[in-house]
């Protein structure tokens, strides 16, 4: 390397010759363009931008120039180096983008292979249907009441105006506890919960009582010895059968849709007077009577209507038994079987699948219905 | 209760063109539910046939069919081929010569079942010999109809092959079947149903003709002596308060019932038997009064109605010797020989027979409770008992007897005695002072006074608008004799609503004002159920009935509370008489059923009540119902109901995680069960502790976790089932299980969670390995570490457990990561080391742990 020289002509220093600089840039740009990988580019960077590259050497020569020449030479070299840098970074970006693209392709998997490693759980649809009904009524301001399944005979029968000789009491096939004089039965209905509620709470009372009930029926397509009911009880001042009908209509809409049509008719239940039976239009045959035809409607049996369940104004005797003054308060009650609601709403054909506990049955319903 | 339209039309006017379905729909409007429709949907040829011969032909399927030749008169093959009808029949209850009912090709049976000649069992069968159910006559499919048995020999003798069986059996006449509720006993008669149909038509003037509206003689001296001697009435009601006895003598016992009567009885689902019996049945169906016919020549003394004596026996008509109860009301001959259980069934000894010429017709009114008890006690539900226990019109008694007398005289050729017995102790109904605005208040429809009064009069009530107590809003109502159910305002309100039309009741959604939503317990139980399902378990429901030997199979110790199961007096199966004391007790059946159906990987749970009486069963009081029981009685009542905690049971077998492209699967093991309980506890934010429990059935003594609340309250157990339990219950090997008390967890979660502050300074972590004896529980080591580590400890994680040759036999190495964090500063290395050393020292002193 030459020492400083105040009257040195930069043109005479060959490394700083514009043509040479230009050639070096051309070489560099060609090498950069030729690089097909990031490794190639790294080699090109070392060769053309590294310490031993022609441009680096040229840069070093500037120091030896007289001050008057430094500025111009510096500018020339700077421009040359900038062109190389620019080419390098542009190519770097291109090659990185290519590499990133390639990685994404290489990392591709078949996402259609099974993803669930664990069996999913599920709730039983009986519980879900009950929950749905309960939630709707709770949303309207009702509360949920509960009681034991092994219940006193008095609460299950006598207090509900089902005296020992009542024909209706004999219709129900009851599981009695041993010894029979213990006065205990498996409740045949959720109604004893209503009695407990009336005995324990002051009106106004608006409660819904879901639960398990028991009758001595063998399991077949329409019967099971253990099944579920949901009952609603309202006791307040000024309640009429119109309120009962309103609550029933709400019930039917929640379960079977806004458009469901109902009809009501008189019936008899010891617990209520007047009593009322509600039917809703069969959604399978849309109310067309198919009695005695070759294929009577399987959903409604041919009448065109499906029985929802019994209801009525709480019998005054029952109110008195519970210490509620029937001259001040009136009320209504209604109930229905949850198995039946499940069968109707979800097209469950028989009873066996509901009670057998085959996991496939619950699993089709997931966590909510 | 059935009713042929032709019979209905006798008592009331049918709407023009009304068919069975229309009549059923009308009755529904007034509260009589349709049950079924019979007849009317059959087209012939359906004819009487006489079996001429048959050949027995055994078939490959094990059946033997009969290849029959039947004389069907000038019908069928006789017309087309000049020979008798050839029919294949599968039934065997007939003989050559019997008269049967044949349906011939071209006919259509109920249900649109078209009959044609068809090839079957190697023959062309030209029609069928019919069973009752096939032609809509009944439900009997035991064999084919043999007319001599269906209609009686006499009636059958008048028939010829080829007679139209549609007319013979009344099949063209539609019969409506309705369900009669217990309060409408009067609808167990065509009289009552016709009245209701008339109401459904708007009760048009003169549109109802009461069949009981016949002239009846008053009681005379010299009638057959009858004494009503009930010395122990039930609830103060005489067992019998009216007894009419009429005698018809000189009946020709060979005279058959008239064909129209046989036909109607058949339509009603009853068998014609003999004139005397048919007449009593016919009148009962017509007016609802059960009658009894005694052979008057077999009676020796007066008729005495009394309660049975203890130990007295009676052989009823169904040939069963019955030991009577002192509540049973008896009809006796001279006070001694029992003739019948009143209102239920007669004795074989005094029945009319095929030689009876003198008949005593009993038309009596018996106490509903008395009849109901006898019927239930003797398991005898008869046409009579059904009516008496629902209440029979006490004023129809004499008319019913008169109708029977008239029929016996007309068709049996008898003569009626002039003397009439009618012991009448019935009392007149008292009038009820009805507030005519009450129906509106109860029903919610604004019925004007005239509407209320009009409806009540249509129903047969006497309405007095000027008697004592009446005013603008009050009238005196006396209900008709056939409506014992009409007592007070709600009863009348129902009648008004029913006749005015239930569908006129508007729909008003009630609006409770202060609902508080679900209780904490109700919400928490949903959290439990959802958490278990979220953990991959499937909810199922099982029956709570379990076998006695289950306690042994579960290896429950002799003093275990779960052995104190309550027993059903009338279980569905004698093999399962007990109620479960744990959910697992019944859930094992469900697991077994799933496995039997080929499910290898099953994880199920159930939430439900179990019965834990915890001691001998008490006796629940049965107080009166006239008023609220006193507090003490209620307390006894509630206390007598055994405790029924709500528990959850979990069972799993097979793979907890499936094998797949990711690698091998993992079998469900004890830890999945512990994790399930911990998942539930965490979902409720309830801290629980886990300890080894070597002695809790039905778990494996080395693989059972006892899970408790922080205060030591037992939550439940989880782990692997004892291999002997698995074997005894035939469960898959290594079945794992958990059971816990949901109520305990729910109660523990009732207080709102109080948030703990947490630090935002960086954590400091340090790992330690502790050598402990193999029988030291990891949970104990962890709690010692926690107690020694000081307040800056954030977490302790056991990240490795090593047992093997690198350490002493009988020991384990437990590797923990301790994480520390101070609330107010970054901890220094020295501080962290001090905390760690203190933790290790605590573990060393509590468990003998040595740091490696
Ligand atoms: Zn239908």
Overview of the molecule:
The complex is a heterodimer of chains A (369) and B (852). A seven-stranded mixed β-sheet of chain A has the order 1-5-6-10-9-8-7, with helices on both faces. The relative contact order of chain A is 0.10. Chain A has two domains: 10-106; 125-363, Bira Bifunctional Protein, Domain 2 (BirA Bifunctional Protein, domain 2), CATH 3.30.930. With 369 residues, chain A is α+β, with helices and mostly antiparallel strands. Chain A has helices spanning 18-34, 38-49, 54-62, 67-106, 125-139, 153-156, 167-171, 191-200, 241-256, 316-321, 338-346, 352-356, 359-363, and strands at residues 143-144, 150-152, 177-178, 184-186, 205-214, 226-236, 262-266, 272-281, 305-314, 330-337. Chain A is rod-shaped. In chain A, strand 7 and strand 8 (272-281) form a beta hairpin. The two termini of chain A are 89 Å apart. Chain B is built from 24 helices and 43 strands. Chain B folds into six domains: 2-39 and 174-200, Phenylalanyl-tRNA Synthetase, Chain B, domain 1; 46-168, Beta Barrel (OB fold (Dihydrolipoamide Acetyltransferase, E2P)), CATH 2.40.50.140; 226-424, Phenylalanyl-trna Synthetase, Chain B, domain 3 (Phenylalanyl-tRNA Synthetase, Chain B, domain 3, 3-Layer(bba) Sandwich); 432-501, Phenylalanyl-tRNA Synthetase, Chain B, domain 1 (2-Layer Sandwich); 520-616 and 632-748, Bira Bifunctional Protein, Domain 2 (BirA Bifunctional Protein, domain 2), CATH 3.30.930.10; 764-851, Alpha-Beta Plaits (2-Layer Sandwich), CATH 3.30.70. In chain B, strands 28-32-33-39-38-37-36 form a seven-stranded mixed β-sheet, with helices on both faces. Chain B starts with a strand and ends with a strand. Helices cover 27% and strands 25% of the residues of chain B. In chain B, helix 9 (275-287) runs antiparallel to helix 12 and helix 10 (368-377) packs across helix 11 (383-390). With 852 residues, chain B is an alpha+beta fold. Chains A and B meet through helix 5, strand 1, strand 2, helix 6 and helix 7 of A and helix 2, strand 2, helix 10, helix 13 and helix 15 of B. Strand 3 of chain A pairs antiparallel with strand 30 (567-568) of chain B, so a sheet runs across the interface.
């Amino acid at each position: 390397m030459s020492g400083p020289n105040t009257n040195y002509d930069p043109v005479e220093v060959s490394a700083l010759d514009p043509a040479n600089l230009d050639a070096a840039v051309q070489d560099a740009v060609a090498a950069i363009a030729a690089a097909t990988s990031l490794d190639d580019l790294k080699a090109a960077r070392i060769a053309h931008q590294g310490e031993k590259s022609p441009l680096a050497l040229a840069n070093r020569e500037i120091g030896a120039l007289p001050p008057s020449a430094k500025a111009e030479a510096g500018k020339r070299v700077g421009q040359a180096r900038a062109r190389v840098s620019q080419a390098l970074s542009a190519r770097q970006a291109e090659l990185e983008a290519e590499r990133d693209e390639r990685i994404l392709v290489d990392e591709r998997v078949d996402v259609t292979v099974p993803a669930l490693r664990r069996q999913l759980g599920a709730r039983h649809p009986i519980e879900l249907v009950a929950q749905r009904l309960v939630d709707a009524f709770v949303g309207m301001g009702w509360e949920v009441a509960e009681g034991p399944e092994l219940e006193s005979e008095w609460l299950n029968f006598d207090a509900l105006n089902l005296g020992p000789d009542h024909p209706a009491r004999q219709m129900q096939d009851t599981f009695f506890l041993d010894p029979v004089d213990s006065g205990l039965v498996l409740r045949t209905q959720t109604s004893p919960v209503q009695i407990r509620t009336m005995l324990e709470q002051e009106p106004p009372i608006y409660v819904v009582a879901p639960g398990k009930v028991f009758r001595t029926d063998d399991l077949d397509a329409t019967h099971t010895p253990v099944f579920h009911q949901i009952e609603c009880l309202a006791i307040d001042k000024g309640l009429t059968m119109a309120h009962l009908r309103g609550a029933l209509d709400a019930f039917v809409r929640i379960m079977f849709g806004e458009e469901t049509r109902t009809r009501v008719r008189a019936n008899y239940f010891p617990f209520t007077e007047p009593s009322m039976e509600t039917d809703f239009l069969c959604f399978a045959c849309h109310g067309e009577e198919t009695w005695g035809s070759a294929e009577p409607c399987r959903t409604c049996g041919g009448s065109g209507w499906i029985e929802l369940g019994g209801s009525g104004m709480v019998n005054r005797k029952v109110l008195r038994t519970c210490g509620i003054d029937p001259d001040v308060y009136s009320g209504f009650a209604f109930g229905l079987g949850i198995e039946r609601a499940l069968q109707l709403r979800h097209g469950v054909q028989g009873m066996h699948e509901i009670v057998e506990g085959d996991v496939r049955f619950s699993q089709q319903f997931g966590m909510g219905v | 209760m059935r009713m042929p339209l032709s019979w209905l039309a006798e008592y009331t006017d049918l709407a023009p063109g009304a068919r069975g379905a229309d009549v059923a729909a009308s009755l529904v409007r007034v509260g009589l539910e349709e049950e079924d429709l019979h007849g009317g949907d059959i087209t012939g040829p359906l004819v009487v046939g006489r079996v001429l011969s048959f050949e027995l032909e055994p078939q490959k399927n094990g059946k033997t069919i009969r290849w029959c030749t039947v004389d069907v008169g000038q019908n069928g093959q006789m017309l087309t081929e000049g020979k008798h009808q050839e029919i294949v029949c599968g039934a065997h209850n007939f003989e050559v010569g019997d008269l049967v009912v044949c349906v011939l090709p071209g006919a259509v049976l109920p249900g649109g079942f078209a009959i044609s000649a068809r090839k079957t069992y190697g023959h062309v069968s030209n029609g069928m010999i019919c069973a009752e159910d096939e032609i809509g006559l009944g439900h009997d499919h035991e064999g084919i109809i043999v007319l001599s048995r269906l209609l009686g020999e006499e009636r059958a003798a008048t028939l010829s092959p080829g007679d139209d069986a549609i007319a013979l059996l009344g099949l063209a006449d539609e019969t409506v079947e309705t369900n009669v509720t217990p309060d409408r006993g009067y609808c167990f008669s065509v009289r009552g149903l016709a009245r209701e149909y008339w109401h459904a038509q708007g009760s048009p003037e003169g549109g109802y003709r009461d069949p009981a509206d016949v002239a009846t003689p008053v009681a005379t001296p010299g009638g057959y002596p009858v004494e009503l001697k009930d010395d122990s009435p039930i609830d103060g009601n005489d067992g019998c308060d009216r007894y009419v006895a009429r005698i018809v003598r000189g009946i020709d016992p060979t005279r058959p019932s008239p064909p129209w009567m046989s036909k109607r009885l058949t339509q009603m689902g009853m068998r014609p038997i003999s004139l005397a019996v048919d007449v009593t049945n016919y009148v009962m169906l017509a007016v609802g009064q059960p009658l009894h016919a005694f052979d008057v020549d077999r009676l020796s003394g007066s008729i005495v109605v009394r309660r049975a004596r203890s130990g007295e026996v009676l052989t009823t008509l169904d040939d069963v010797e019955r030991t009577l109860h002192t509540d049973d009301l008896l009809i006796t001959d001279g006070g001694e020989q029992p003739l019948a259980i009143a209102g239920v069934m007669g004795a074989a000894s005094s029945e009319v027979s095929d030689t009876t010429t003198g008949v005593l017709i009993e038309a009596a009114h018996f106490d509903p409770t008395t009849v109901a008890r006898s019927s239930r006690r003797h398991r005898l539900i008869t046409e009579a008992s059904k009516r008496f226990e629902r209440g029979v019109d006490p004023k129809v008694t004499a008319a019913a007897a008169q109708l029977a007398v008239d029929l016996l005289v007309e068709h049996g050729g008898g003569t009626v005695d002039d003397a009439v017995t009618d012991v009448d102790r019935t009392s007149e109904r008292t009038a009820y002072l009805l507030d005519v605005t009450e129906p509106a208040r109860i029903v919610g429809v604004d019925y004007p006074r005239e509407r209320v009064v009009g409806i009540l009069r249509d129903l047969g009530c006497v309405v007095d608008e000027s008697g004592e107590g009446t005013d603008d809003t009050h009238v005196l109502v006396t209900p008709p004799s056939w409506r014992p159910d009409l007592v007070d305002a709600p009863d009348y309100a129902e009648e008004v609503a029913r006749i005015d039309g239930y569908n006129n009741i508007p729909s008003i959604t009630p609006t409770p004002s202060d609902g508080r939503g679900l209780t904490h317990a109700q919400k928490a139980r949903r959290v439990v159920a959802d958490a278990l399902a979220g953990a991959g378990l499937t909810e199922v429901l099982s029956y709570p009935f379990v076998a006695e030997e289950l306690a042994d199979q579960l290896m429950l110790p002799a003093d275990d509370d779960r052995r104190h199961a309550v027993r059903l007096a009338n279980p569905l199966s004698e093999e399962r008489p007990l109620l479960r004391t744990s959910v697992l007790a019944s859930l094992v059946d469900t697991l077994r059923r799933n496995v039997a159906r080929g499910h290898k990987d099953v994880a199920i749970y159930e939430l439900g009540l179990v019965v834990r009486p915890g001691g001998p069963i008490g006796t629940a009081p049965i107080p009166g119902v006239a008023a609220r029981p006193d507090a003490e009685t209620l307390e006894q009542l509630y206390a007598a109901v055994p405790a029924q905690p709500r528990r959850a049971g979990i069972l799993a077998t097979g793979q907890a995680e499936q094998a797949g492209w990711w690698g091998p699967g993992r079998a469900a093991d004890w830890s999945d069960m512990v994790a399930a309980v911990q998942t539930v506890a965490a979902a409720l934010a309830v801290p629980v502790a886990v300890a080894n429990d070597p002695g809790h059935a039905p778990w494996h003594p080395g693989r059972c976790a006892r899970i408790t609340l922080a205060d030591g309250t037992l939550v439940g157990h989880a782990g692997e089932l004892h291999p002997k339990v698995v074997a005894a219950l035939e469960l898959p090997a290594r079945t794992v299980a958990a059971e816990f008390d949901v109520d305990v967890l729910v109660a523990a979660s009732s207080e709102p969670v109080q948030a703990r502050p947490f630090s935002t300074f960086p954590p400091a972590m340090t790992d330690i390995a502790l050598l402990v004896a193999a029988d030291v529980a990891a949970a104990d080591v962890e709690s010692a570490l926690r107690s020694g580590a000081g307040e800056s400890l954030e977490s302790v994680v056991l990240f490795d457990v090593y047992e093997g040759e690198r350490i002493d036999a009988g020991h384990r190495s437990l590797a923990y990561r301790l994480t520390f964090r101070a609330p107010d500063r970054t901890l220094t290395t020295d501080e962290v080391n001090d905390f760690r050393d203190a933790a290790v020292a605590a573990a060393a002193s509590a468990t003998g742990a040595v740091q490696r």
